[in-house]
Amino acid sequence: MDHRRPGPLVTVPSTALFTDQYELTMLRAALRAGTAHRRSVFEVFTRRLPEGRRYGVVAGTGRVLDAVTNFRFEPEMLDFLDRNEVVDGPTLDWLADYRFRGTVRGYPEGEVYFPGSPILQVEGTFAECVVLETVVLSILNHDSAVAAAASRMAVAAADRPLMEMGARRTHELSAVAAARAAYVGGFSTTSNLAAGYRYGIPTVGTSAHAFTLLHDTERHAFTAQVDSLGRGTTLLVDTYDVAEAVRTAVEVAGPELGAVRIDSGDLLMVAHQVRRQLDELGAQETRIVVTSDLDEYAIASLAAAPVDAYGVGTQLVTGSGHPTCSMVYKLVARAEGEGPDAPMRPVAKKSLGGKLSVAGVKWAARPTDPEGYAEAEVIGTGEVPAELADRRLGVELVRNGEPVGRESLDAARERHVRARAGLPLSATQLSRGEPVLPTRYLTPTA
Amino acid sequence: MDHRRPGPLVTVPSTALFTDQYELTMLRAALRAGTAHRRSVFEVFTRRLPEGRRYGVVAGTGRVLDAVTNFRFEPEMLDFLDRNEVVDGPTLDWLADYRFRGTVRGYPEGEVYFPGSPILQVEGTFAECVVLETVVLSILNHDSAVAAAASRMAVAAADRPLMEMGARRTHELSAVAAARAAYVGGFSTTSNLAAGYRYGIPTVGTSAHAFTLLHDTERHAFTAQVDSLGRGTTLLVDTYDVAEAVRTAVEVAGPELGAVRIDSGDLLMVAHQVRRQLDELGAQETRIVVTSDLDEYAIASLAAAPVDAYGVGTQLVTGSGHPTCSMVYKLVARAEGEGPDAPMRPVAKKSLGGKLSVAGVKWAARPTDPEGYAEAEVIGTGEVPAELADRRLGVELVRNGEPVGRESLDAARERHVRARAGLPLSATQLSRGEPVLPTRYLTPTA
């Protein structure tokens, strides 16, 4: 990816209004009550994985760092909040100077997670942390859902490359984040030019049915494409009759034809027919690319077929049945008073029949069995037991408001491969099941 | 909404890279082949509704107009395309001057649609139309999916207001579009400040569990909130014990307390208990707001419960099981030659076993039965039969590159109410079923 300099595609001058109104009304009330500056820790975690999934994949961490850095209230935003009486004068004054000066720790991008894993921990005053809730969750819930689907597809595809092609099936900016998350989860390329521009992800794409239909004949279209894009291009062969198109394609491009793409029909059967035909025509090196509503199961079902690459759209960007994660952002500890040295107290919602949380700032560790496979997600409060000290999972991401956890997307992508390889082998079964690691809580003995 | 002046939250200097690479490589090859300037018509339609759904809802049309207007290639984007050899020199030159100068017709925002409905028709040269595919589909597929879910929820909620609260469950900019689409589909308000800022949608929100946990006691928290936000505020009563919280809430705010919010537990049972308790405490006017993973079925199940408003998040922004629509953007007609007067030819993909399309530029009309209910979605090519002339569905949206179809969100929202009311009554059944109108194709007799 080094040859592609990422550029700032979309100028988001501020992320400060990607915020649910209640965050600012809470701030307003807490400022007035004098409690807004109590030291606080919020944690991002999930109570469960999507049904049947074996592991989750953390993605979006790098985008969270950008969002926290860009969380500033511009004058026209303050004017909007004032005009609509969302906040009062003192709150406007406070927001005008807002800049996150706290600390963020968390699972690094690409790491796997389980129910209860403290994926992100945001520490600072209540005021400076509470306003980040929505944007942090938006990013992590969306990106992690896509990365989890990508990871399952990458397992199903084994060594065959996966191309992300889902932009048209999701919001135009979700699409850019989805391409990024898919790359973290194991995809190789994207059709999305904005994702190439912004994040340096390699882009691919050649032609659609419209190109064939524009021309007087299929041969005319193929000739036009090969003249312009070269013999290494990918010709789409299912606009009219596949066998005829393959014959024409090889006649036009010769056996150096890069690939043919099949976008409809019984992919398994058609791939075998096309491979046989290509081989008979002497185009043994011409690859076969398939696209058409693929998901991890369809990819797996093509494992024995002569397919060289998969293009995946809808099911990737919609998380293959789970378009969001259920991550929440909860206050788990706060100071008992206003001063910086006031003792911290663990807190949690306790209403019966509701959604329970575990109070206190957590650590997490992932011990391994003698063969080196992870055996549990151990989560605790208080001191980390000595035997788990070198199995801890969190890293520092923001220190005193300054991002310290930036890294390349390739680093996150490689981390994910390692993290998944460290799980018990059943992690990569596509069938529905329980989380592949149990979550074990260790709390200090009283 | 008039008191809220929408502002430009997110500066998207250009939408031109929300584009799949193949659009630009097709352009490159067509420019070289001399076919790029053939007059062409692309249509957006779906082959089916999501399984079990009775109707679709068009949303995002206004955003499409913005996207088409802002589709310009900035110098740094051209540099990116050049550096990565996506296009060649002549294509770069052509893109540098790009500006859509064609015509767009389509279903106006808020209208309902059915399989085959020509939701959008983009006419111009092949070159100027082909590059809009991805961004147009991204917007319509996302926004229409959310609007369809919103419409079903609005039916289930009947006269009770719906609040959109899903920002944290989707990409931060999807969230803004989702709040917009939800408003079109029948929601009243949003928690999303960016949606209020950008689109003038009324925003709501008061407090979360974190606010209660920040304070030394629940009474302390409620007092702080009422002191700052007034007695008309909504107090969240399920952090500890609901009955105790309701008692404290009324003690603190008096019977003028605006509302209480319940966010967990058995909402049906708890709503009845809370209503009884509020009435006994003399707070007959205090409303009950429920939130907690609601979808249209949960909303319907609370129809007989003493609930005054619903807050909906996850299931709304993820389209209640259908997070995207299956809209496609297909070339349906193109000129036989390069000149502006070359005759147009209907075209369609024809590969067997694949995804069939109907060739030709379509019109659509929705005739009604004697009682005034729609009886079919009639789609045809060629002349519109006289008896259908006043039942046509399309409107002009862009003329010679200039948007002419801009309207307020309220206009789209009101149109949706009318369009849904014009469907047979079974349209509003939540249970799975077939599209409530059959699609009938009328093609000219040969």
From TrEMBL, chains A, B:
Q: How is it modified after translation?
A: Transiently phosphorylated on a His residue during the reaction cycle. Phosphorylation strongly increases the affinity for substrates and increases the rate of nicotinate D-ribonucleotide production. Dephosphorylation regenerates the low-affinity form of the enzyme, leading to product release.
Write the record's keywords in alphabetical order, separated by commas.
Glycosyltransferase, Ligase, Phosphoprotein, Pyridine nucleotide biosynthesis, Transferase
Identify the InterPro entries for this entry: Aldolase_TIM (IPR013785), N/Namide_PRibTrfase (IPR041525), NAPRTase_N (IPR040727), Nic_PRibTrfase-Fam (IPR007229), Nic_PRibTrfase_pncB (IPR006405), Nicotinate_pribotase-like_C (IPR036068)
SUPFAM superfamilies on file: Nicotinate/Quinolinate PRTase C-terminal domain-like (SSF51690), Nicotinate/Quinolinate PRTase N-terminal domain-like (SSF54675)
UniProt-listed Pfam families: NAPRTase, NAPRTase_N
Q: Which residues cross the membrane?
A: none
One GO MF annotation is:
nicotinate phosphoribosyltransferase activity
Gene3D superfamilies per UniProt? Aldolase class I, nicotinate phosphoribosyltransferase
Catalytic reaction(s) noted: 5-phospho-alpha-D-ribose 1-diphosphate + nicotinate + ATP + H2O = nicotinate beta-D-ribonucleotide + ADP + phosphate + diphosphate
Locate the Nicotinate/nicotinamide phosphoribosyltransferase domain: which residues? 162-331
Taking every annotated instance into account, which residue ranges of this chain make up the domain Nicotinate phosphoribosyltransferase N-terminal?
17-141
Task: Look up keyword Secreted and say if it applies.
Answer: no
Pathway the protein takes part in: Cofactor biosynthesis; NAD(+) biosynthesis; nicotinate D-ribonucleotide from nicotinate: step 1/1
> Which EC number(s) does UniProt give?
6.3.4.21
Give the record's family classification: Belongs to the NAPRTase family.
Role played: Catalyzes the first step in the biosynthesis of NAD from nicotinic acid, the ATP-dependent synthesis of beta-nicotinate D-ribonucleotide from nicotinate and 5-phospho-D-ribose 1-phosphate.
Query: What is this protein's record name?
Result: Nicotinate phosphoribosyltransferase
Q: What is the lineage of its organism?
A: Bacteria, Bacillati, Actinomycetota, Actinomycetes, Kitasatosporales
